[in-house]
Amino acid sequence: MVFLILKSLFGSTTLSLFAACLFVVTCLLSLILIFFRIRTIIQSQTETETETEAERGLSLGTEIQTRLESQNEIIRYLRRNQETQLLELALSSRDFSEQDYERLLSLDNETPTKILQRASQVEINRLPVRVISKNEELRLAQNQRFCSVCLSEFKENDVVKTLPCFHFFHQSCIEKWLKIKKKCPVCDSWI
């Protein structure tokens, strides 16, 4: 009905032009509406992501704080006990070299062990000793090929000492270990 009234007022050519303009305006308004809806959706997603990132940041911050607190406790203990060489190693953020391991071993020998229970010489001497033969060396290639204390590969004619848990080590390596700690370095079982 509105179409008929407009046709009588403006004529068919004007009406076609008017209808085309009205169609274009309607399309533009629809596009603008769609744009605002998309923008609103994106903003709400961004706010949610920001909240999630903030929560993650808080969680990460707590984890970092916990790690720093435990590191600070270690540092305070080392300072209190005047363990400057151990403190140096603890504060270094690099991989340990062979010299560092030697340094730790020498510090271990110098530091009195109060808490750890050591093996007596009698207990150490009771442990079985054997020499690795060529056949055994081949068999070892499939199982325990390295001494877990010095990390060297077992070779023919190496003298090894076996613990009750059946782990074995170079005799000199495990004897040094057992004088400090009365446990297997691999499985932590008492000898």
From TrEMBL:
MF terms from GO for this chain are:
ubiquitin protein ligase activity; zinc ion binding
- Keywords annotated in UniProt: Membrane, Metal-binding, Transmembrane, Transmembrane helix, Zinc, Zinc-finger
- Report one GO cellular component: nucleus
> Where does the sequence pass through the membrane?
15-36
The reply on keyword Cytoplasm is: no
Looking up Pfam families in the UniProt record yields: zf-RING_2 (PF13639)
Q: Which residues form the RING-type domain?
A: 147-188
* Biological process, per Gene Ontology: ubiquitin-dependent protein catabolic process
Name of this protein: RING-type domain-containing protein
